[in-house]
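Researcher: We're teaching a course module on how sequence relates to structure. For the next exercise, students receive a sequence and then see the predicted structure as tokens, so they can try to spot secondary structure elements on their own. Here is the exercise chain.
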Amino acid sequence: MEIDAMETSSVQIDAVHGWTSNPDPEEALDGIFGDRGTEGASLGIVFVTPDHDLDRVGRLLDERFDCPVLACTTAGEIGEYGYVVRGISAAALWGVEARVGVIRDAEGFGDAEAEALVAQLGAGSIECTDSSVLLTIFDGLSMREEWMCSSLYRATGGVPMVGGSSGDGLTFDRAMVYVDGRFERGVSTCALVHAESGIRTFVDHHFEDTGTVLVVTGTDPSTRRILEINGVPAADAYARALGHGVGELTEGLTLKHPLMVRAGDRLYVRGVRALPGDGSLAMYCSIEEGAVLHVGRPGVMEDHLESLLARTTAGIDPKLVMMFDCVLRRCEADRFGKFGPMGRCLSGYPVHGFSTYGEQFNGVHVNQTVTGVVFGVES
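Model: And here is the predicted structure for the students to work with:
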């Protein structure tokens, strides 16, 4: 296993960010950063459509930033006006201390490797209650996010964690992550970011528990498929719980009624990725045999988001609001006419984010959820 780590020093807190659909990467970055540029930045954060010339984008990021950079391809980008596509969302952050590490072998990454990486990132020098965050950008096709996420969180001793898995639209073919001037397959990155104050993490979804409980009785963890629920084919049991026959099970139903697992006092969503047609459910997260699943029902997506942002930014002047938002939320918003209301919720906030193949929050890999972090100045 190879683990790389880099370090930068901190300067006064500030941020510049933007999104553009300009197909020329150099013009796109010029338009976003303008006269301010990126000189003296502590951390660069870039989310880019896989349709761009990624070789050229990688070279430009290497040339433009004299600090660590987190970057990946997306299943769509997110800006101040909501969901956008086929562009570049880029940000430069000042006023934090940031160290970035690279994971090149997801299969071989366990607790020992996580402890070594976290030691290089310097997590032992900060308290988990300090204004700090571990940002994760995982390979969205690795099918190893659950293990990387939990190992890293344990190794930090509880430093707040948020992040997302790289995407490739809805193609699921070439989700890529930036490392050392190139976008690569099969790699993941994370950044330990610390400031004296002004870092707040958040997580939310808009689903409630219907009270219907299912028990997983057969799985294939290697492919993230649930084979049986309550002793019968998983798709049959799921459809029955929704009051439908298996032939009536559709993407629309799975978006509105996801499966959830409870950890402590919180329900975490386990999104259905596909209905293979063989009685199984293909999931975005691995689920173990014996897991107890709760069937969800939707609340009002935009109301939840509006309340979340208001709570998280209370008493702080936000300079950058990073969002890791599940691609299933984008699909749901598209299918049910929520693009406009969601965009109105985001207007007025300095939003910079992307649609992910999975989200991370405090050691848990989740779906159909938004996680993120606010960087700002405490009032």
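Model: If you want an answer key for the exercise: Residues 77 and 84 are 5 Å apart (CA to CA). The first strand starts at residue 3 and ends at 7.
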